[in-house]
């Protein structure tokens, strides 16, 4: 769960980091408020939200167990732990 959350956070921050690198490459002051006008921040926020929503859609469609499978929780058989699995 932490990996998924960290991935989503990284995808959200990616447009802002790319813009900051662009500002550094053009020798602009990164931390000055004039370098971050509201219009640019709005575009960056929109791009970040699109990346996060796109990754949610991708994960929902292409990860997990196959359709129609059933979950078998971890249990003990003959004194040994059998891990969970999808059947």
Would you kindly provide a brief summary of this structure?
With 87 residues, this protein is mainly alpha-helical. It has one domain (2-86).
What does it look like?
This protein has two helices and four strands. It is elongated. With 87 residues, it is mostly helical. Strand 2 (75-77) and strand 3 form a beta hairpin. The strands form two sheets. The protein has a two-stranded antiparallel sheet with strand order 1-4. Strands 2-3 form a two-stranded antiparallel ribbon.
Mean pLDDT comes to: 93
The amount of beta strand, in percent, is 5-15%
Class based on secondary structure composition and strand pairing: mainly alpha
How many distinct folded domains?
A: 1
Q: Quick one: how many beta strands?
A: 4
Q: How are helices and strands ordered from N to C?
A: HHEEEE
Distance between the termini: 23 Å
Largest sheet: 2 strands, antiparallel
Shape: elongated
Question: What is the helix tally?
Answer: 2
What is the assembly state of the chains in this entry? single chain
Rg over CA atoms: 22 Å
Q: Into which percent range does the helicity of residues fall?
A: 55-70%
Give unreliable regions as ranges: none
Give the strand order, joined by hyphens, for the main sheet.
1-4
List keywords for this structure.
two-stranded antiparallel ribbon; 87 residues; 4 strands; 2 helices; single chain
């Amino acid at each position: 769960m932490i990996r998924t959350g960290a991935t989503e956070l990284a995808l959200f921050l990616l447009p802002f980091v790319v813009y900051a690198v662009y500002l550094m490459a053009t020798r602009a002051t990164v931390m000055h408020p004039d370098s971050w006008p509201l219009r640019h921040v709005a575009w960056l926020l929109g791009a970040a939200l699109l990346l996060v929503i796109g990754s949610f859609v991708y994960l929902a469609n292409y990860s997990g167990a196959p359709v129609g499978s059933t979950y078998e929780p971890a249990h003990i058989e003959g004194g040994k732990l059998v891990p969970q699995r999808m059947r």
